[in-house]
Write a structure and sequence with these properties.
Elements: E1 12-16, H1 21-37, E2 40-48, H2 49-55, E3 61-63, E4 70-72, H3 75-100, E5 103-111, H4 113-120, E6 126-130, H5 144-152, E7 157-160, E8 170-174, H6 178-191, E9 196-200, H7 208-221, E10 226-230, H8 236-242, E11 247-251, E12 269-272
Parallel strand pairs: 1-2, 1-6, 2-5, 6-7, 8-9, 8-11, 9-10, 11-12
Antiparallel strand pairs: 3-4, 7-12
């Protein structure tokens, strides 16, 4: 994949899948992107080793989802439950892949969740996952796994909530950096004939007019038009809402403060290195 040029193609999309509603949204979006690129999706289910450690404690209890009654638990029972969940994940990925007509594969790996997903993503063009799994989070905040992967993954990371999908209008937060240029290139591919909404974030060292011309020229090379507005970082989420953003591409270069705005944005976010 060449994120610096016009050949940006998302051919191999890794989906970190745990059967949560947010992860299902990520799976659907990943399959749609792979289908457009003639690519493939790879499902990864992580057997969380922390669950197995907890299940081995004498005080461990399992709450039955049907009766809500706690009962003693064990490592063997937890392993059976993880196998059941993994099989459910495999069936879900197979169904979506067949419906969207994309090639697919599926792996089950045991280990700590975030490092295992990052290791499994080596060679992928994009990682897609839900903003949170089964964790209880107020508002829009990322879950701990999503946050760790978003910060450490070297490839683009797509984050979605339940019911979200990647669709126009495509928005890019543009600060003139290398990652922002890559985000523009990828946005042009995702937008197709539709204009790309460019949210200029000049900062203290950047001139808004210079950034505007640079962004418009870069998109024009690929035959894409730009709809530009200048925003301050604290107002980014409001601008996304005003633009009715279908997905926001955020540059996630080291030291950039833009990636820290993920929690505030009420649409799918694609972080671009």
């Amino acid at each position: 994949m060449n994120l610096g040029g016009r050949e940006t193609v998302l051919r191999h999309v890794l989906v970190a899948f745990d059967l949560s509603a947010h992860a299902r949204a990520a799976l659907e979006a990943a399959a749609a992107l792979a289908a457009r690129a003639g690519g493939e999706i790879e499902g990864l289910f992580v057997e969380d080793e922390e669950f197995l450690k907890l299940a081995g404690l004498p005080v461990a209890r399992f709450v039955d989802p049907g009766s809500a009654a706690p009962r003693p638990h064990s490592v063997a029972a937890m392993e059976r439950e993880l196998r059941r969940l993994a099989e459910g994940a495999r069936r879900a990925i197979e169904e979506v892949a067949r419906r969207t007509r994309v090639r697919w594969s599926f792996r089950v790996v045991r280990g700590p969740v975030s490092p295992t997903v990052l290791a499994g993503a080596v060679g992928a063009d994009l990682v897609a996952l839900g903003r949170s799994g089964y964790e209880a989070h107020a508002g829009r905040r990322l879950g701990s796994t999503a946050r760790a992967i978003a910060r450490a993954a070297p490839m683009p990371v797509l984050l979605l909530r339940r019911g979200e999908t990647v669709a126009p209008p495509i928005l890019v937060a543009y600060d003139g950096g290398e990652a922002a240029d890559r985000a523009l290139d990828l946005a042009a591919r995702l937008a197709g004939p539709e204009p790309v909404g460019v949210l200029l974030v000049p900062g203290e060292r950047r001139d808004a007019d210079v950034l505007r011309r640079r962004a418009e020229a870069r998109l024009r090379v690929g035959g894409t038009t730009a709809r530009v507005r200048v925003v301050e970082p604290p107002a980014l989420a409001d601008a996304v809402r005003d633009e009715r953003g279908g997905v926001l591409l955020l540059p996630a270069a080291p030291g950039s403060s833009l990636a820290e705005r993920v929690d505030e944005v009420a649409c799918p976010v694609l972080l671009v290195r």
